[in-house]
Amino acid sequence: MKKVFSVMLFASLPIISLFNACSKEDPEIVEEQELITTVILTLTSNGAPDQSVRWTLESADTPTISLQVNQEYKVAISFLDESDPQDIEDITEEVREEADEHQVFYEFSDVNVSYISGEGDTIDEDNNPVNVNTLWTVTDSGSGSVTAYLIHEPISKISSTRDGFGGETDVQVSFPIVITE
Amino acid sequence: MNQIKFFVPLTLLALATVKGQLCSLTLEGRIIDLHEGTPIFGAVISIEGTTLFGQSDERGYYKIPEVCKGSLKLKITHEQCNTIEKTLFLESNRNQNFELEHHINELNEIILSEAAVNQLNLSLTESRLNAEEIAKLSNDNLAEALSGMAGVSVLKTGSGIAKPMIHGLYGSRVAIVADGMRLQDQEWGADHAPNIDLNGFESVQVVKGVATLRYGGDTPGGMIVLNPQKAYLADSLYGASVINGVTNGKGGSMSAKLTRTLSNGYYYSGQFSLKQFGDRKAPDYILTNTGLKEYAVGMRMGRNKIVKGWHLDYRHFQNTTGILRAAHIGNIEDLLRAIESSIPLRIDPFSYTLDAPKQEAKHQNLQAHFFNELNDQSKLILNYSYQRSNRKEYDVRRGNRSGQAAIDLTLNTHDFLGRIEWDKNFDWNFEWGLNGMIQDNFSNPETGVKRLIPDYIKVQAGSYLTGSYRPSTTFNWEWGFRYDQIAIDAKKFYDTKIWNESGYSSRFSDIETKDFGTQILVNPKLNYGNFSGQTGVAIQLGKNLTTRFSYLHTQRAPNISELFSDGLHHSLATIEYGNLLLDKEISHKLLLGINHTGGSLKYGIEPYVNWISDFIFIQPTGVELTIRGAFPVWEYQATDVLMWGGDAYIEMTPHTNIQYKAAAAYTYAQDQLAQNPLINVPPFSLSQQLSYHFPKSALEFELAHRYTAAQKRFPNTNFYISQIESGARVQKEIDISTPPPAFHTFDLYLTWPIQQQSKVNTSLRIIIQNITNTTYFDYLNRLRFYSAELGRIAQIQLIFRY
Description:
The structure holds 2 protein chains of 2 kinds.
Chain A: H1 2-17, E1 38-44, E2 51-56, E3 65-68, E4 72-81, E5 89-90, H2 91-97, E6 102-109, E7 113-117, E8 133-138, E9 142-152, H3 162-165, E10 168-180
Parallel strand pairs in A: 3-10
Antiparallel strand pairs in A: 1-2, 1-4, 4-5, 4-8, 6-9, 7-8, 9-10
Chain B: H1 2-7, H2 10-19, E1 25-33, E2 44-47, E3 53-55, E4 61-67, E5 70-77, E6 84-90, E7 94-95, E8 98-100, H3 104-112, E9 126-129, H4 131-136, H5 142-146, E10 152-157, E11 161-166, E12 169-170, E13 174-178, E14 181-182, E15 203-207, E16 222-227, E17 236-246, E18 251-261, E19 266-277, E20 280-281, E21 286-287, E22 292-304, E23 308-322, H6 332-340, E24 358-373, E25 378-394, E26 407-423, E27 428-443, E28 455-472, E29 475-495, H7 496-501, H8 504-507, E30 512-515, E31 519-522, E32 525-540, E33 545-556, H9 560-564, E34 566-569, E35 574-577, E36 585-597, E37 601-626, E38 629-655, E39 658-671, E40 676-677, E41 685-693, E42 700-708, E43 719-725, E44 728-734, E45 743-755, E46 761-769, E47 793-801
């Protein structure tokens, strides 16, 4: 019996020594691969000044989009990964390459703006525009907002509501809009 | 006459007169089965060279009066047991117990009978699945198989992932013990099913509370103990196979095991299981991407020499589980859309393909076990296990990255458990043990997604002492203490912003290791000391009535997920954060059990109350704005919780061919600080089974019914979002709190023993679950917002025993 107890006590020594045993090496930092940190809308038009609005997680205020009634705007959306300032990645390329799996959608509230696919847009295999490049038509003055979506694996590619597209939201950002005469 | 013979030697008589009572001593005690601890009836104990003898009664007691002082040669015989001889020196009246061992052939029968599994804790009620029940449930996973027991419920993530829940507690609060060692996998995640195949085991014991401090003192919920088949001690070859074909999911499973035993005690056994399913089906739609692939292999060899033995064991378990495609969402508006839709938002045609989202788990276990009975009273048992658990989780990702795991964790655990069991005499038993564990987690950085769980090393050392006092079969007192020291050394990257905002930067500036700009590497070193204790009594009040009363004190250090979790959950669109400031959780649990066992009537009622201070749980704390929109943030916190409830069961045999069983369970859980009900608490449930045994054909027919009430007590964790509807912004409530309504399900079992006489014992079973094809939703299914539970499932099962 005594022998057994001493065996057990002996066994407890390595158990206790485990506490000082080892320490882990410093882990590697993870390169986030699918991050989108920035959304930029570039608006150009013939009669009105060009503008570019940026949405980033860091910026406290979202810039306002100023539009003029009865104008047409070419709107290009781009998605960037700026998590590493030394290596800014343009995710828009990925969206264009995987046109079948992506859809850009704009939803306006309290303002009358309509849009269609524009010059330079990517068209997917089923002939549906991805709406990376769009043409906006402004009809009435007022103020409201636009929400830009990037939808991944949508169920439908033709819809006028977010619900109709289904899929998962990869990006959802809102910009205030002011439309003047 | 006989006694006179004894009094003859004059010298002895002379001595006797000196002391006055030389031949008036009494030798008494009990004769007990060496392996079972149960009394042996009808054993004869005789004193050699005399005609004195005694015989054990039903309770194993014997008594020999008028024994002389001096050295006695005793012989204990029983027709079914090996005779033992013993020499004792008798000085005064003595209480001496003996352990007998059944003959080898008898022993096999005993070992194979259900009773061969010792009850883990006599003062706690225990539920059990035997080999036959395991075969019946062979197509199910562990949690589903146990869900028929009162007080056991299942926390599900869709149709394929299930975790057992005992008395409303799960995860780190429930221990799973396989073949004498605790299963070390990623048990802390609500969507991590235990990596174990039920078919590799012969019996399962479920104890609602810390069954034994041997396996840890940190599980206020309970313990699930899986026992492998014990080996015959004879030349034999035996095994069993089960084949299941299932309509729902167009799949099935098969498992087989084979054991070779030799009369010299050596044995070898092998076991495997395979399981595959395609997309499962709810009553009205296909559940896209809910297939499953699983395989398990087990090998074992060892030697059993009754008093001494060893075995080596290797188990490999691997599965890939698809997660409902529609449950992978981008943000909370997607969640709202899913909740508002009556069907899953993505339904594809039936397929066996497993796409993202899915989980891949791989668990390997290598184990060595040794025991040696040092003498009649003490036994040394040593166990060592090495477990390697890898978990990969795949999300739907952009840029062809869906094939790349988003979570890739490898957990390596070395665990040692050594113990000494000491029977001082038959009344007092003690057990002392030492437990040491070292665990290393590695999170693969190649995933391209921030680590959900950091790299860490966890070291745990513990020691326990338990004992029991059993002066008679009608009374048993058990007690125990355990102390564990736990050290966690983690290396974690925090988002610099979160590190500063949470106040960690000022509190824990000393553990900052390296600043990477947007991220910061820190090295938390945490230490916890856990003390656990328990005591309980079992008293037999009448012939068939036993009451049990126990108090269990457990302390649990926060687990890795509670401390460090950091990431986005795609199925619930929540951001989850661990909490470095958590303290250990302290639980006091009182359990009462009143159990009646009779010939045709068995029933039991088991109320309990559980007070847990610093109970760790996760709850919403705010909203975080991301590029995908606003996300609710859920953070681990501590509160005080009061839980109480009760389980009840009844088994009746009103007629020799008819059996009726029912079990009910209720749990009340209240967050005492917030004065709110606790989340994910199982609602009241009642299950009933009525079976009829056709006397001639041996056909058995069983109808099972299960009623699950609606959970009326739940916290409100709803939140509001602003959404554009018809060109205008509206506020919408996202209701993720309201539990689904009550439901009834009916199952049917038909068992037909085709061939019982020959060497191969074959039986056929037809199982139909959810006969009525009812659409229902389970509150404890975390994906209940996306789809209903499975519809009708028809299954055909063939069992061979050879």
